[in-house]
Amino acid sequence: MADSPLVWWRRQGLRFRLTVAAAAVLALALALSASVLLSVLDRALIDTVDESTRHQAQTVRVAADAGTLTSPITTHDGTIVQVIAADGRITHVTYGADRLVPLLDERAREKVLGEGTATFLDGRPYAIPGPLRVVVLRADRGQTVVAARPVGEIQTSLGTAGRVLLVGTPALIVLLAVASWLMIGRTLRPITALRRGAADITHTARSRRLPVPQSRDEVHSLATTLNDMLARLEEAEQRQRALVSDAAHELRSPLASIRLQLEVALGHPDGQDWPDTAEGVLEDTMRLSRLAEDLLALARLDERGGVPARREPVDLDDVVRQTVERYGEARLTVCDPVLVRGDALDLSRVLTNLMDNAVRHTASKVEVALTADGVLTVTDDGPGIPEHDRERVFNRFTRLDSGRSRDEGGAGLGLAIVRETVRAHGGTVCLEDASPGLRAVVRLPVSR
Ligand SMILES: Nc1ncnc2c1ncn2[C@@H]1O[C@H](COP(=O)(O)OP(=O)(O)OP(=O)(O)O)[C@@H](O)[C@H]1O
Ligand SMILES: [Mg+2]
Predict the structure, then answer these.
(1) Residue 383: nearest ligand to its CA?
(2) Are the beta carbons of 258 and 281 closer than 8 angstroms?
């Protein structure tokens, strides 16, 4: 099926459409102004002719009234005059004018007189080429003055002007179309360069930035915005790649350990302490499953894009009390009733991660406090974290060297999960110096 003209038009390139639209608008404007110009010119020229013809007729009438008409009547601008007596006879004429047949018969004369304006008359029956403008005036003693002026020349001039416009206008339109085509092409060149740059990125993955034009215009800001976006995407991709490689790295050591234990055991099955082997393998398997769970938790947080899984009213004090109960060495100092909106399971995981860290690093005690304004603190008296590392430890897979050397150390995902969960709940988390030790401070918005 053939496309409708509208669909065809939409399929054309921007350059073509802009050029055609500009040319069409110009053509319309020029045609309109040419026709207005010609008609105004025509009107003005005819008015001038009418006025001077009437002037001549009046001069003749004055002479006729005074009885001083000469024969032939003299006029200076080629006006043809006939003076017709009351009985219809032509008494006086200008040189060369018809003495027998009046230009207008009596009925026509009366009509023109009644209207008070000049009228057109075909000159050919009177051997005058082209049309005439005729003015009729009434003089004394029933005489009528008929004055006529050929206007063929005016019409020839107007015709010439019309022909010039007819040829000139299309030429002007073609000129403008060519100029628009070139100018639009030049304007679109940076966009073409952007497109080529984008294609380059897609095909070669070599250059990761689009060419930015020198001009400070819309295309320039588009290119910079797109480049910013590309930089962010690249950053996200790098983060993702680092995450995958870190995760693979973390998976490798428990898997290698399991493999080694099993290989050793199978190599010497007789003297092997199987329950011991199973215990070792189980420990590594637990590490693996914790890692998988943490990765899954982070993936879910990423997926939700900063929104908690649920938004239910949660009695945070209950969650805190139940969690702290599971840790023998932890003490709950303050526990005001606090109501927050969110996911109870995720919030308890926040506290669990903080307490795991505190218990792992503390020297003697861990103190947990929850105040009525939604501030939850977990304080230990361990080695603490140097100030310049206190932000860094929130990154995924970030463990400090001391943490790395410990056997019981995790993968470095605990604090990352804490930060993202707290953020999803609209809160903040930071680490402070508890001298000695570390204090983790979580601030959650309280719902009333
Ligand atoms: N209470 C603390 N005292 C001293 N250092 C800490 C404390 N909490 C965390 N850290 C340091 O911050 C690092 C990151 O902590 P995070 O909880 O993110 O990971 P992790 O505990 O090592 O592993 P995971 O929590 O995944 O089992 C730890 O490796 C440790 O070096
Ligand atoms: Mg931890």
Answers:
(1) 1
(2) yes
Q: What is the pLDDT of residues 198-240, one digit of tens each?
A: 888 877 766 678 888 888 888 899 999 999 999 998 888 888 8
Residues of the chain with pLDDT under 50: 404, 406
pLDDT of residue 178: 96
Please tell me the pTM assigned to this model.
0.63
Ligand 1 site residues (CB inside 6 A) read 294, 353, 357-358, 361, 380, 382-385, 393, 398-400, 402-403, 409-416, 438
Is the Cβ–Cβ distance between 393 and 410 less than 8 Å? Answer: no
As a dihedral over the C-alpha atoms of residue 164, residue 165, residue 168, residue 173, rounded to 10 degrees, the angle is -170
What CATH number does domain 312-443 carry, 3.30.428.10, 3.20.20.100, 3.30.565.10, 3.40.50.2300?
Answer: 3.30.565.10
Name the residue with tokens 């179309």. 177
Given a contact cutoff of 8 angstroms between Cβ atoms, the answer to whether 358 and 414 are in contact is no
Task: Say how far residue 188 (Cα) sits from the centre of its chain.
Answer: 16
